[in-house]
Design goal:
This protein is an alpha+beta fold. Helices cover 10% and strands 14% of the residues. It contains 2 helices and 4 strands; from the N terminus they run E-H-E-E-H-E.
Length: 97
């Protein structure tokens, strides 16, 4: 490979949706994921698993966060979160909280 085509870092065979491609959520979501940094191990499984691409990570080593404007409340992120100390970093709560 020459300098122009050399890849930087690991290459992962991932397909990620474009953020906002499914549109804004509106007011129909009944539950939402709430993030607690204290229990996050920065494994990014939530980011990898989100079917809407609404879990964001700005740069390597940062904590993930949820884009509530586009999050549909499916709960996959909370389901795959391993957390630490027996607590998950993402927990689904009623939309009213």
């Amino acid at each position: 490979m020459n300098d122009e085509t050399e890849l930087k870092g690991p290459v992962l065979p991932l397909g990620r949706p474009t953020i906002g491609s499914a549109g804004e959520t509106g007011d129909w979501r009944t539950i939402k994921p709430v993030f607690t940094e204290e229990y996050c191990i920065k494994c990014y499984k939530c980011w990898l698993s989100c079917p809407e691409g609404t879990i964001r990570v700005d740069s390597h080593g940062e904590y993930p966060y949820v884009d509530y404007l586009h999050c549909k409340g499916c709960g996959i992120c909370a389901h795959v979160c391993p957390g630490k100390k027996g607590n998950k970093a993402l927990k689904m709560v009623p939309e009213t909280e």
